[in-house]
Amino acid sequence: MPAASQHVLIAGAGIFGVTAALELRRRGHRVTLLDPEPPPAPRAASTDVSKVVRREYGSDGEYLRLGGEAIAGWRRWNAQWRQPLYHQDGVLLLAGRSLDEEGYEGNSWRALLAAGCRPERLAPRQLAGRFPAWRPERYRDGFFHAEGGWVESGRVVARLLGRARDAGVTRLGGEGMAALLAGDRAVAGVRTTSGREIAADHVVVAAGAWTGRLLGLDGLWATAHPVFHLRPARPQLFAAERFPVFLADVAATGWYGFPLHPREGIVKVARHALGRRVDPDVPRTVAPGDEEALRAFLRQSLPALADAPLAGSRSCLYCDTADGHFWIDRDPEREGLTVASGGSGHAFKFAPLLGGWIADAVEGVAAPALGRFRWRRAAGPWAGEEEARAQGVE
Q: How confident is the model at residue 346 (pLDDT cuts 50, 70, 90)?
């Protein structure tokens, strides 16, 4: 190992933690990865069968650019894997207003065109012909973008953990971080949930919804968001070529979803909205009224799913920040500590980039993306800048 190598201990083996472990190991560091649950951890945000991969970020050109870099990374990973886990089936954005107006869909449309992308605009008549599951009169405008799709999230985490093991990362399963081992200004390791003390040169806390509580940071908190798995009576109607990943007037409604899963035989529909602030140890059940809201959306937009039986449901817990941007930075007051969290419901798509950003933060390398993910000293009022996230519904 190079003389500058360190022992880095990472608390949390979700998508932030495992990508950081891989990249730090690649750079010559000795890495220990802690997680209290078997991978992919059933209570983590990184679990479940699917996550969206998209470049559509409204008027935010920086995320659009990073989304393109991430998609290139997903293609590289697919080329390395015996079975691809990224499915480029495209992304369908449906709007309740014209794309010529201001709003998430129109802003995304213009940003994509300015970036040289080629989304296809769809009038209601074209929507009905090409994607027949949809009730076209519900939406005034929209577009399909072939660059994007979805990943098999739980399987991605498991595969990356396997790669980390093969690269020499030490994983301590069944143990999580209970507290930092620290003096006034420096971190020397962690005390685990079993009471063991593990020394390290640097600690990365990538504990998702638990991060704020573990570190006493009021700028990070947990919110709960409903996820549903439906078993359609007419599965052929929801095959990817006829039913790609969708965001349905998402900034107003929060609803998005996926094509029929090729192995599970389910259609996943979920809500990307403000959510309910919760304790991270809350049971992962949906709240009263969540299924009723889902069924109302389906009756209005996807009638063939309106009465489909549930194959499962859960609450996905985001680790939120006040601005909706990630939190990847070294602690300005405690040496030897980096926080890598604050996914805010849209981090998984950037998995091929996350490890590099976190490793740069650990090593103190200046990286352009890290400016947006800098340390925030206190929680401000909610002012989410991620345009797809519905802020008028819980």
A: very high
> Binning pLDDT at 50, 70 and 90, where does residue 380 land?
low
pLDDT by residue (tens digit) across 285-335? Answer: 999 999 999 999 999 999 999 999 999 999 999 999 999 999 999 999 999
Q: Give percent of the chain with pLDDT exceeding 90.
A: 90
Q: pTM, whole model, 2 decimals?
A: 0.96
Q: Are 28 and 1 a contacting pair, CB within 8 Å?
A: yes
